[in-house]
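User: Structure please.
Assistant: Input sequence and predicted structure:
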Amino acid sequence: MSFNRTPIAEVLQTDPKSQEITVMGWVRTFRNNQFIALNDGSCLKTLQVVVDYENADPALLKRITTGAAIKIVGSLEASQGRGQKVEVKASSVEIFGDSDPEKYPLQPKKHSLEFLREIAHLRFRTNTFGAIFRIRHAVSFAIHQYFNDQGFYYIHSPIITGSDAEGAGEMFQVSTLSPDNLPKTEDGAVDFKQDFFGKATNLTVSGQLEAELAALALSKVYTFGPTFRAENSHTTRHLAEFWMIEPEVAFTDIHGNMDLAEGMLKYVIRYCLEHCHEDLEFLEQRLINEEKNKPQNERSPMSLTEKLEFCVANEFERVTYTEAIRILKNSKPNKKKKFQFVIEEWGADLQSEHERYLVEKHFKKPVILIDYPKDIKSFYMRQNDDGKTVAAMDILFPGIGEIVGGSQREERLDKLTQRMEEMDIPKEEMEWFLDTRRYGTCPHAGYGLGFGRLVLFITGMANIRDVIPFPRYPGSAEF
């Protein structure tokens, strides 16, 4: 049996000359025992296949049902019907896999996103999720291409680690010890020396620290891999397992870091606008239809493509945290206490509502906030000369708030160890990290970008569980 076929995306762009063609895919609909709408995932659109039902085997026709996998050989013709330029007149139909129409969950009707999450193993076959995952691929490809073109090296950081890069403590433990018979030390603690790695280990929360090690030899590196947070969070923006992009660059500062992040975001968004037009158009119309039932003040101020073009066309506004607090304190929503979290003083941790106000209402362009209070940021961020702030940055986008977080790293050994002591981070477990400050330290910087959050922004979806194939969150580890 030959499996040579032409992808439907290519067929739809082919000039019809009654040439023989072979296509394979899944039946979306079969009308009047004559018209098959066939999709193979290569694009959003379906290909119309016309069956000679008068001369076809009735038993075969009964097996052409929604969800069935089939092979079609036929001639490519100009379509006589509306809605498509070409169609295939089938000379043979072969069924690879039947689909019982009484049991198949994806009937040709609208399904809620909540229902589709329950059948995530099948939701790839819907228009919405086909579009999302083609875009997810494009975003991933564009990220790799951007860093490759900029001379970066791709580093695989470990998934199992003995360190907590964020100092957050919300980590998944990794162990081969039996929970029914845990070995104990003399003081009653679990004796991890008897565990597989001889010490307590966890799933990584970040590849940053390992990327720093590589950057201080290779100059420009990035990681792109899975990370894990054991947060008992049920929001639309958090997952227990998600992918992170984390570049690290030697011989640069916070300003070079901002330039790199802005350049990367614009490159990726521009790539999607150029290469995912059909899928973005579909998701934009889906968003418009979804918002029709919402009050006007709850609808998105920009369409999906307008929002993406907004980020590409505008230079990102660079603002200090101190200036942002001043703007927010004097804003109407704050004075009238319309913010859920009212800004009262310097040092407040900004929430999504504050970030969106700065982007959408005040500056009306993407914003990079810099120089945050050191007390609300991580130990590895470079301390500024004022003794109160660190060279940190967050990039804020419309509709979503923070999309990138990064900093210039603290390269001075004395300053770094002092900060670790203040934040109770055990130095003895981080000697390998401190060695980079002992031997040939230099100014360096990097940032972290949650891949799912970027895909969420580009697709216009509302829930991060809908932009990753098999979401992991509290109470859910299906598939």
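The longest helix spans residues 127-149.
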